[in-house]
Amino acid sequence: MTSPMGMALITGASSGMGAIYADRLARRGYDLILVARGRESLERVANAIANATGRAVTPGRADLGNPEDLRLVESILRTDPSVTMLVNNAGIGSVEPLLKADVDVMERIIEINVVALTRLVYAAAPAFASRKHGTIVNLASALPLAPEKFNDVYGASKAFVLALTQSLQAELSYDGLRFQAVLPGAIATPFWEASGRSLENLPNRAVMLPEDAVDAALADLDLGELVTLPSLPDSDDWNAYDAMRQELIPKLSSNVAASRYRAASRA
After folding, report:
1. Is the separation of the CB atoms in 113 and 143 below 8 Å?
2. pLDDT band at 75, cuts 50/70/90?
């Protein structure tokens, strides 16, 4: 029997926040399609959630950096009307500074964090818009607000995710779609070891459990918030930051250069 909540497709679902999203959404009544590269870990997560919740859970092994695998996932989003939520959780990172980084690794980060995510959004959003219903959750990072603190390409890739989500909200929210960008700080997941840094190098007070991050993000999704920072104590801080950004927008394009530059030019 099809769930009245529909189906949630979650990428990067074999561990970390993706696996927690799968558990939490199944407990909310969603059936699931779980996408990840590791077949054994993915099937283990899928079986555990199906047994615990009774929901239909379909594991789908796919490498989103492989064009053929990516197109298969896109096809599901375009053609399966039971899919009502996309959680773009898959992502990779690096801690290497530019002068030590391998540009091929940087390109892989862009392929997964930017290109694959964008293609999945472009598959899901038109399908959801046609049905006037659907939710897209994009996992970004707090790094767009602090790009100096981590690898440059990784931070830039997550800034793209935030900007894309804000633009989607402006363009398509009237069609009954919901969008959310989740901006976690350091989370205790395998991501860190895969990126080349141990969590032991970070103070305990700066590292959140993935369960807490996902629960905060889902609570904020219920509240209808576009941007979620699970660690931020006071949402007024983000609202003030975003209000200042909005005030800048009318000043960003003009037919004349700012007077301070003209004065400097004459001098």
Report:
1. no
2. very high
Q: What's the pTM?
A: 0.93
Dist CA 181 CA 252 (whole Å): 24
**DSSP code of 113?**
I
User: Which are the contacts of 63, defined by CB distance < 8 A and separation ≥ 6?
Assistant: 37, 69
For residue 105, which amino acid is it?
Answer: V
More confident residue, 231 or 198: 231
Helix (H, G, I), strand (E, B) or coil at 187: strand
> Considering only CA atoms, which of 143, 218, 138 is closest in space to residue 182?
138
Instruction: Name residue, tokens 């009318």.
Output: 250
Which fold is adopted by the domain 7-233? Rossmann fold (3.40.50)
Look-up of token digits 């250069």? 257
Helices (H), ranges, 54-102: 67-79
Element (H, E) at 156: helix 152-172
Count each helix (H run) and each strand (E run) in the chain, helices first.
Answer: 10, 9
Work out the average pLDDT over 63-84: 98
Q: Are strands 31-36 and 7-11 parallel, antiparallel or unpaired?
A: parallel
Residue 194 is predicted with a pLDDT of: 62
Boundaries of every domain in the chain:
7-233
Q: Can you tell me which residue has the tokens 């862009």?
A: 110
Angle between helices 103-110 and 152-172 (to 10 degrees): 20
